[in-house]
Write a structure and sequence with these properties.
six-stranded mixed sheet; five-stranded antiparallel sheet; globular; 368 residues; alpha+beta; single chain
C-alpha cells in the first residue's frame, strides 16, 4: 500500500510539474502582452521610405575618416563593390556578441566604439549600410526574426540590402560572411531568401551558408526565416519616421514583444511589393482605409509601465490628424494625432473608425 501511495504522490508531483512547465513556456512565448487578433495588416503599397544621400553630412564624415569608400568606388560592378566594402569593413570593426550602441548611424556608432574592434550585429549592419551609401548605393538594414516561439528560442539575423539598377531589385548581403545568395545566377533579395527554398539557392561567401553557424549560439539562418523587418526611415538621423515594416508569412508571427523587450512601432504586412519597392519610386496613392499603429510609451525622462502605449493611426503614409478610437466596450472617442492608452488585465480591444460609427481596423491584445 505504501508503495502505491508513493507512486500516486509521485504521479501527482510530476503532473503538477508538467502543468507548471507548460504555463511557464506559454508565458515566455510572447511575454505579458499577446496578440489575440490583428485585423490591421497593411497590404497596400503607399508607404514612403527614406534613404540617406551620398552627400549627407554623417555619410561624408564617415567616408572622410576611412579609406573604404575610396577603394570600393574603383569597382564598377555594384555587387562586387558591396562585397568589397563588407571585407574592408572588418579592418575597422567586426561582429561579436555585444550590447547595441545608442547611435543610429555608422559615424556615431563608430565614435562610441573607439577602442573596440567588435560590435553587435545591429551596429555593424548600420555601419555597413552607411558605408554602402557612401559609395553610391541605396541601402537598408534588414532583420530576419523567429517570433512565434518561447523567449529562449526567439532568434534574429541581421543583413543589409542594396538596390541594384542592373537587376531592378534589392540584393541581400550577409555582411558577417561577406556573402550573398543567388538563384541560377540571379542574386536574391531578402524576401526571395525568406520565401524560397534555401537549399535550392546557391551561396557565395566565406562560410557554408547552408549551415550558417554564427558565434551567437550557432544560429542557422533556416531557424529565423519567418519574418523580415526593415525601417521606413533609413537615414542617419531617422527624423522622418521611427516606425518599421515587418513582412510576415503567418499572422501567428505578429507580436508586441521580442526577446523580452517591446518591439519598435511596427506595421505588419503580407505584401511583398511593399518590401520590394524601388527606393526611387516616390509614388503615394490613396490607401483604401486607415490603420492603427502602437508605440511603447517611454522617453528619456520617463520609462512607461509595461502596459502603457501611445496609439496613432495612419493612411497614405501620414499620421492622421483626426480619427476615432473605441477601447473595449466603450464609445468611439475623437482623437487628434496621438493618444495614450493603458492596457487592462485580460483582453483589450482597440477599434479604429474615421466616422465614429464604423470600425475599419481592430486589434485585440491580452495583457496578463
Amino acid at each position: 500500500m505504501n508503495k502505491i501511495n508513493k507512486l500516486f504522490k509521485l504521479g501527482i508531483i510530476l503532473a503538477i510539474l508538467a502543468v507548471g512547465i507548460v504555463l511557464i513556456t506559454k508565458t515566455r512565448t510572447f511575454g505579458k502582452i499577446t496578440v489575440e487578433s490583428w485585423e490591421n495588416i497593411y497590404n497596400e503599397n503607399n508607404i514612403k521610405f527614406y534613404y540617406s544621400e551620398e552627400d549627407n553630412e554623417k555619410i561624408k564624415a564617415l567616408s572622410n575618416l576611412y579609406s573604404i569608400s575610396e577603394e570600393a568606388k574603383k569597382i564598377d560592378d555594384k555587387l562586387e563593390r558591396a562585397i568589397e566594402v563588407s571585407k574592408l569593413l572588418k579592418s575597422i570593426i567586426s561582429y561579436d556578441v555585444a550590447e547595441d550602441a545608442k547611435g543610429i548611424n555608422g559615424f556615431d556608432i563608430l565614435r562610441d566604439k573607439i577602442g573596440y574592434s567588435t560590435a553587435s550585429a545591429r551596429d555593424v549592419a548600420i555601419i555597413y549600410r552607411d558605408f554602402l551609401q557612401s559609395v553610391g548605393l541605396k541601402a537598408r538594414v534588414g532583420e530576419f526574426r523567429r517570433t512565434n516561439a518561447s523567449k529562449i528560442k526567439q532568434k534574429s539575423y541581421f543583413v543589409v540590402e542594396f538596390w541594384s539598377e542592373k537587376y531592378s531589385k534589392w540584393i541581400m548581403i550577409d555582411f558577417i560572411n561577406d556573402g550573398y545568395f543567388d538563384n541560377q545566377g540571379f542574386p536574391c533579395s531578402a524576401i526571395e531568401v525568406l520565401e524560397g527554398n534555401i537549399n535550392a539557392l546557391n551561396y557565395t561567401g566565406k562560410k557554408d551558408i547552408k549551415k550558417f553557424n554564427w558565434r551567437d549560439k550557432n544560429i542557422n539562418i533556416s531557424d529565423v526565416l519567418y519574418t523580415y523587418t526593415i525601417a521606413i526611415d533609413n537615414t542617419t538621423d531617422m527624423k522622418q519616421s521611427n516606425t518599421y515594416i515587418t513582412y510576415i508569412k503567418d499572422v501567428k508571427d505578429i507580436v508586441m514583444q521580442f526577446k523580452g523587450k517591446d518591439i519598435k512601432p511596427t506595421i505588419y504586412t503580407q505584401n511583398k511589393e511593399l518590401i520590394n519597392k524601388n527606393p526611387l519610386d516616390k509614388t503615394i496613392d490613396n490607401d483604401e482605409k486607415a490603420y492603427l499603429v502602437l508605440m511603447k510609451k517611454e522617453d528619456s525622462s520617463y520609462k512607461g509601465s509595461e502596459n502603457e502605449y501611445i496609439l496613432g493611426a495612419f493612411q497614405n503614409s501620414k499620421i492622421l490628424k483626426n480619427y476615432y478610437v473605441k477601447l473595449n466596450n466603450g464609445e468611439f472617442n475623437k482623437i487628434r494625432e496621438y493618444n495614450d492608452i493603458t492596457l487592462e488585465k485580460g483582453l483589450n480591444t482597440i477599434e479604429l473608425s474615421l466616422d465614429g460609427e464604423n470600425t475599419i481596423s481592430k486589434i485585440e491584445l491580452n495583457y496578463k
